[in-house]
Design brief:
Strand content: 5-15%
Helix content: 40-55%
CATH topology of the largest domain: Glutaredoxin
CATH class of the largest domain: Alpha Beta
Shape: flat
Order of helices and strands: EEHEEHHHHHEEHEHHHHHEEH
Number of strands: 9
Number of domains: 2
Radius of gyration: 24 Å
CATH superfamily of the largest domain: Glutaredoxin
Structural class: alpha+beta
Distance between the termini: 46 Å
Number of helices: 13
């Protein structure tokens, strides 16, 4: 069985539920020639779309859709066109730009296919290992789960929990930790088998149409002409955005001068301190990018302490001119810019934080660094 745990923002209350073993692929465990992450959210969107299209008994009808628009089916059409109205072709790219959920659905299909491959391979591996041990599959899994309780360290469990958004692993009940031990152990078994015989994967991640972002006045890092462009929509009070900070730091370390990052504020309504923190961060940005990124890191390291007095203290800590900062902050100088960023994000299809655009390709959430690398590798020109 694979374990998922839910926790509140303070990571103090835990609830658990288990789902079938096959779904733990979203946490990794298979080594493939091309590494992709699975977004169950997008898969569920595809499923929801399928349900929506079958809401009752059907019968042959006329050519009018429920919207009242009359369609006529025709063969051919211009390359890339999906329809034509009043002599104007409507392209697939045009539709994806105006309706981001279309690309999300395409990405969901791809991720569902990848997930199915992982499940097929995993079942083959585990069945083979059980056969070698002269055990049935259930007995083999039980045996390895008991072995994991002895072999997987408390440190490994804590690191796993932190990687998946649990800030205080010490407060997690022992029974949950034991299930995490089993998960880590099974991942290791699967990974070791596919390192010896990697899975050849032929499907390619779909590519979204190019999007244009308003960069004016936003905080940035690196050379604006760098080949790798990352735009992040984020919320200083969002616990998952703190994980997003770690992803940015990994990218900075790996790609250095090849990388340009733009940070766009997207404070969510359920986070009352996020808007003031965003305004404060842009006030700091007036005094230099280095101060902004230092302030950015301090905010994510202190998400439970974002009062006005806390923000003023952090401004002093990063070496800002406190008088200029307090004048800017008190005037809510950047409220309009932040609201414009929110509207822009919503138009682009941002509905959660963090959301990254890596060379224009959306990554919803602080996904594994491998997903960022995969997009970067496929979007850069091939080396000669």
């Amino acid at each position: 069985m694979a374990l998922f745990f839910l926790h509140n923002q303070k990571n103090q209350v835990y609830d658990t539920f288990t789902i079938s073993f096959k779904t733990f692929s979203k946490l990794g465990g298979i080594t493939v020639s091309k590494n992709f992450s699975v977004s169950l959210k997008l898969v569920s969107q595809v499923a929801a779309l399928a349900v929506f299209t079958m809401v009752g008994c059907t019968q042959e009808a006329g050519n009018a859709s429920e919207s009242g628009i009359q369609f006529v089916k025709k063969d051919g059409g211009a390359p890339g066109a999906v329809a034509k109205f009043m002599g104007k072709d409507i392209s697939a790219d045009e539709l994806e730009r105006s309706s981001p959920e279309i690309f999300d659905a395409k990405l969901g299909v791809f991720e569902a296919q990848k997930h199915a491959v992982e499940e097929f391979v995993r079942q083959q591996i585990l069945t083979d290992l059980a056969k070698r041990a002269n055990l049935g599959l259930d007995d083999y899994l039980q045996k390895e789960t008991e072995k994991a309780k002895k072999d997987v360290s408390e440190k490994a469990v804590a690191e796993f929990l932190k990687q998946h958004g649990v800030a205080k692993p010490d407060e997690v009940p022992a029974r949950i930790k034991d299930q995490v031990r089993g998960l880590i152990h099974m991942q290791s078994l699967i990974s070791s088998q596919t390192k010896k015989n990697q899975v050849e994967f032929y499907l390619k991640r779909p590519m979204a149409p190019k999007l244009d972002f308003n960069m004016a006045g936003e905080a940035s890092w690196g050379n604006a002409d760098a080949p790798i462009q990352v735009v992040e929509f984020s919320d200083f009070q969002c616990p998952f955005c703190a994980k997003g900070k770690e992803r940015l730091n990994q990218l900075k370390k790996e790609y250095g001068k090849k990388l340009h990052v733009v940070y766009k504020n997207f404070p969510l309504p359920m986070h009352p301190d996020a808007m003031p923190a965003a305004n404060a961060a842009l006030c700091i940005n007036e005094q230099g990018a280095d101060k902004f990124w230092a302030f950015h890191d301090v905010l994510f390291e202190n998400q439970q302490k974002l009062s006005a007095d806390d923000l003023k203290a952090y401004a002093k800590k990063v070496g800002a001119d406190t008088k200029k900062f307090e004048e800017c902050f008190a005037a809510s100088k950047y409220k309009g810019q932040i609201e414009a960023s929110q509207k822009e994000g919503q138009k682009m299809g941002v509905n959660s934080t963090p959301t990254f655009y890596v060379n224009g390709q959306p990554v919803h959430g602080a996904k594994d660094i491998s997903e960022f690398r995969e997009i970067i590798d496929e979007s850069l020109p091939a080396k000669n």
